[in-house]
Every structure is written in structure tokens, then in C-alpha cells.
Specification:
The protein is mostly beta strands. It is built from one helix and eight strands; from the N terminus they run H-E-E-E-E-E-E-E-E.
């Protein structure tokens, strides 16, 4: 009898549990770092992010790598960026959802040059579109503008990414 009662309690607690869904995303894209005479997207990169989906403004943690190929000094090799962002999805009744995002982070320059191309914190903002696929998977395209804080000659970066996000579900 005790076993049946315990079994029923576990069953009802499982049925009453909420499933929370977060997202793990991967992306590829291109970055323009020399924007004085217009954007030139010659630097390619990739990234990974993790987004918590249970909030109105959803926290997203990004790690990105960009291979630098259009800087005048060949000693600058790549950028490693880590950032924390807030993402707000606009509600609509379609599978295509626009969103805006903003946040801050730090950019580590591999092969940095003093007073020319250095590691610095940054702020960024952007917008994108997500298309909901089956079973919680999403395809997305995103554009961002990144502003370096405290740099002497580096000003901003323009970033275009496309990628996928995969649902991560767990029971609360």
C-alpha cells in the first residue's frame, strides 16, 4: 500500500511539473572592423550562445571568435569576444519572430598593437529575425553594431550572423 501511495505521489508531482525550455545556439557570420569609408565584411567568424527563455527580456550569453583578415598589420590575428545580452522577442502569431537585443562584453585581440588595435570592453545592440522550425528548433539571422569603450583608434564593428538554436528542456 505504501508503495502505491508513493508511486501516485511521484506521478502527480511529475504531471504538475513545468517544462522550461532554454536555447543553445550556434552561428556563423562576417564582421566589418574598418568602417571609416563604409562597411567591408572581410572577417569571418563563428559563435555559440546560451539563452534563458523564461523571462520577458531573455538573458543570452555569447562567445564569439572572429578571424581578422583585413587589418593593415598582419600581427593582428583574431578576436575572442564574450558578452551578456538581453533579448526581447516581439509577440506575433506567426513562426517568424523579430527581436532586439543589447548588452556588453569584452573583446580580446590576439596579436594586439598598442594604441592601434587593443583588447577592450564594448557595448552592442542589434536586431534579428527567428523562424520557428519543428520541435523548438529555430533558424535566425542577426545584425549587430558593437562600440568599443576606451579605444583610441578602434571605433566600432558591424556584425552579420546567421545560425540555428536548439531547445534544451528540463523539468522544474
Amino acid at each position: 500500500m505504501k508503495t502505491k501511495v508513493l508511486y501516485l505521489l511521484l506521478l502527480f508531482s511529475y504531471l504538475n511539473a513545468r517544462t522550461v525550455e532554454n536555447e543553445l545556439g550556434i552561428n556563423m557570420g562576417t564582421t566589418s572592423i574598418n568602417n571609416d569609408s563604409g562597411a567591408r565584411f572581410n572577417n569571418y567568424g563563428m559563435g555559440i550562445n546560451y539563452q534563458l527563455d523564461k523571462y520577458v527580456v531573455m538573458p543570452r550569453f555569447d562567445l564569439d571568435y572572429v578571424k581578422i583578415s583585413d587589418f593593415s598589420d598582419n600581427s593582428v590575428d583574431s578576436l575572442f569576444k564574450g558578452s551578456i545580452n538581453g533579448v526581447y522577442e516581439f509577440e506575433n502569431r506567426t513562426d517568424l519572430k523579430p527581436y532586439i537585443m543589447g548588452g556588453s562584453g569584452y573583446e580580446k585581440v590576439s596579436g594586439e598593437i598598442d594604441n592601434s588595435f587593443e583588447s577592450h570592453p564594448f557595448v552592442q545592440g542589434g536586431m534579428g529575425l527567428r523562424y520557428k522550425l519543428k520541435q523548438g528548433y529555430k533558424a535566425q539571422v542577426e545584425g549587430k553594431m558593437l562600440q568599443i569603450i576606451g579605444g583610441k583608434s578602434e571605433n566600432n564593428e558591424v556584425i552579420l550572423n546567421f545560425g540555428m538554436s536548439f531547445p534544451i528542456r528540463y523539468i522544474v
